[in-house]
Write a structure and sequence with these properties.
Rossmann fold; six-stranded mixed β-sheet; two-stranded antiparallel ribbon; 7% strand; globular
Length: 647
């Protein structure tokens, strides 16, 4: 079987090309370090099976970061195979940088196909450039726009040069010795001279974005603009527009389709009707109602990623993050956390510093993922109505403040370490790609979530309708399995204002999937998603909220530990002890903050005075630290601060 191995610098379009070749929808965005693991897929092309391999981006054959080590290891593996074709994907507008890797592959005697991607973004003398590159590297040179399907046929029609076993072994040994001896660093100056002598830059005019980048380079101007952009997006998603779409789905899909199925089930059996009503209308329906807002959230994230704005936010916020032991690259993981915390933990692999990576992963569970949004929207809308989007913005700001305060206590700074980030070109988002990414994320969310919700709702129905002797408790005074077990832990949450057994059940099932919290509360109260808000306000319900308890519950849910799949990913990335510590720490922090919020809102002056005392202590500690830092500053000379002048 023939294998195409896609290699190249970060953000040259390898994953986009992989998606076109394999009809996949792997995550690809306009920033560096998106692909952090190897992706493989076998396709059939005119009756022939072909393996397509997408490797993480590498700037050179050095192995400084985890993803570079993975890529170089895979190159070694495929060098040992006769039927492998290496495809070097280069950004046509950034050849002076991308060709460094091409020269290294040439020095290793590795034959490759050179692909000039994003050819539509440059005005290029194609024939002259192709001739220069073909003569220099003795390779086939192709020009493509990887987002188009024409790229698929151009690449897959390449014929394979046959290799004998001796040639394969010789090339493999040469490559291993080259990487091991660090020749890529020794020959760097010579390599860049060769690139300069090619005069590639004379053959094209790049589409420039310097003017827009100049305007976005002022933090005092651009950071408030970015913040207003996010506020406007939250207003659309969780304000009137999102609520209108959510109500439309509830009225014309859940109520119509699911109710019709449940009525037919009641004609068969009362117990079967109750089961389907609990699973479909109450369980799955309560999640489907919020799909329009989830779709809008994923669409907004796709637009931000594909335009190149995220890299600029990362660059601007780096000086601020360094004071707390993070770097600007942490923004990529944090922004990914808006969609799914599990995937954002994986994105953190693009952070070279292991300490920064651990601290970033530790912060990520505090970012409210899309799975937490339904329950927060339901509870917040009870008391805040159309101002729910302001509640969400406030929650995100509170969680950010909590994270940064915790990181500040660790007293780790990175001010003297360089921050290297290649800023990609600003692009108008490609409409088809944005829609495809949004559709894939939504379908992935729905397929993963709705199946788990249906399964857990079935289990919940059994546990809430039968006792320990497996007898149906309907019409009796016996307590169900669920009520007995959850009622034992319910008093723990009584100081927070929601000491109901139903809340304990919701939190427990929420560890499996956060979307289950809405479904569990609806099932415990015996209502559908549309009536859940009214039930939570009714003191006669099994679970109900007042304003203080609702605020306390929302704060707890937002800061509470992520789901088990996320904890499993954290364990895989930074170890079991760190995952356990993350879970325990988040639980106690969420509990403590919710306790203060509830007790202060109900007028408990003891907690109010403790809170005020903590604020004064924090203010005094900050002043002392500032004075100490000012006294230790030795950069001031002749009444001018060299540190400020450097900035």
């Amino acid at each position: 079987m023939k294998s195409f191995v896609l290699i190249g610098n970060p953000n040259t379009g390898k994953t986009t090309l992989f998606n076109v070749l394999t009809n996949s929808n792997e995550h690809a965005s306009n920033w560096h370090g998106v692909t952090v693991s190897v992706k493989k897929k076998v396709i059939t092309y005119f009756g022939q099976k072909i393996e397509i391999v997408d490797l993480p981006g590498i700037g050179s054959l050095s192995h400084t970061s985890p993803d570079e080590k993975i890529a170089i290891k895979e190159i070694e593996n495929y060098l040992n195979k006769k039927n492998s074709i290496f495809v070097l994907v280069c950004d046509a507008g950034n050849l002076n940088k991308n060709l460094f890797l091409a020269y290294q592959l040439k020095e290793c005697n590795i034959k490759f196909v050179l692909v000039l991607n994003m050819i539509n973004e440059v005005k290029l003398n194609i024939d002259l450039v192709k001739k220069k590159l073909t003569d220099e590297f003795n390779c086939l040179t192709l020009t493509i726009d990887c987002r188009r399907k024409k790229a698929k046929h151009k690449l897959l029609d390449i014929k394979l040069d046959k290799k004998n076993s001796e040639e394969v072994i010789k090339n493999l040994r040469h490559f291993i010795n080259y990487v091991k001896n660090g020749n890529e660093l020794k020959n760097a100056e010579i390599t860049y001279k060769k690139i300069t002598n090619l005069h590639i830059s004379d053959c094209f005019n790049q589409v420039k974005t310097e003017k827009s980048d100049f305007l976005l380079s002022f933090p005092k101007l651009s950071l408030p603009l970015f913040f207003l952009l996010f506020c406007f997006a939250f207003f659309l998603i969780f304000g009137p527009v999102g609520s209108l779409l959510s109500d439309f789905v509830d009225d014309y899909f859940v109520s119509f389709v699911f109710d019709f199925i449940v009525i037919k089930a009641y004609n068969i059996s009362g117990l079967f009707g109750d089961f389907l009503n609990s699973v479909l209308v109450v369980g799955v329906g309560s999640v489907i109602c919020f799909l329009p807002q989830i779709v809008m959230l994923f669409l907004f994230l796709s637009l931000i990623e594909d335009s190149g704005i995220m890299s600029r936010i990362s660059f601007l916020i780096d000086p601020f993050f360094r004071k707390f032991g993070l770097t600007g690259k942490s923004v990529f993981s944090i922004m990914s956390g808006f969609g799914c915390t599990t995937s954002s933990v994986l994105v953190s692999r693009n952070l070279e510093n292991s300490i920064v990576r651990k601290k970033t992963i530790f912060v990520l569970p505090f970012v409210g993922c899309s799975a937490k949004l339904p329950i927060i929207l339901v509870v917040s809308s009870l008391f805040f109505g159309k101002l729910v989007f302001l509640v969400l913005i406030g929650l995100y700001l509170i969680s950010l403040f909590v994270c940064l305060f915790i990181l500040k206590l660790s007293n780790i700074k990175l001010e003297h370490q360089p921050f290297l980030l290649e800023i990609p070109r600003l692009r108008i988002p490609y409409f088809k790609k944005v829609i495809a990414d949004t559709k894939y994320n939504v379908f992935s969310f729905a397929s993963r979530t709705l199946g788990i919700v249906a399964l857990l709702c079935s289990l919940l129905f059994f546990l809430s309708n039968f006792d320990f002797y497996f007898r149906n408790i309907a019409g009796t005074e016996n307590k169900s399995i669920l009520e007995v077990v959850a009622g034992f832990f319910a008093p723990i949450f009584k100081p927070l204002g929601f000491g109901f057994f139903g809340v304990v059940v919701a939190l427990f099932f929420g560890l499996v999937a956060k979307e289950m919290i809405v479904s569990v509360l609806a099932m415990i109260n015996g209502v559908g998603a549309g009536m859940l808000g009214y039930a939570l306000l009714n003191p006669a319900s099994e679970v109900f909220f007042t304003l203080p308890s609702a605020v306390s519950f929302v704060v707890f849910i937002f800061l509470f530990s992520p789901c088990f799949p996320c904890l499993s990913m954290i364990r895989k990335e930074i170890g079991l002890k760190s995952a356990i510590f993350c879970f325990v720490f988040q639980f106690f922090l969420a509990y403590l903050l919710s306790l203060f919020v509830y007790q202060i809102l109900i007028g408990n002056f003891i907690f109010l005075w403790i809170f005020v005392s903590l604020l004064f202590a924090l203010f005094g500690w900050s002043v002392l630290k500032l004075r100490k830092r000012k006294g230790q500053c030795d950069g001031c000379k002749n009444k001018f601060c060299s540190f400020r002048r450097k900035l």
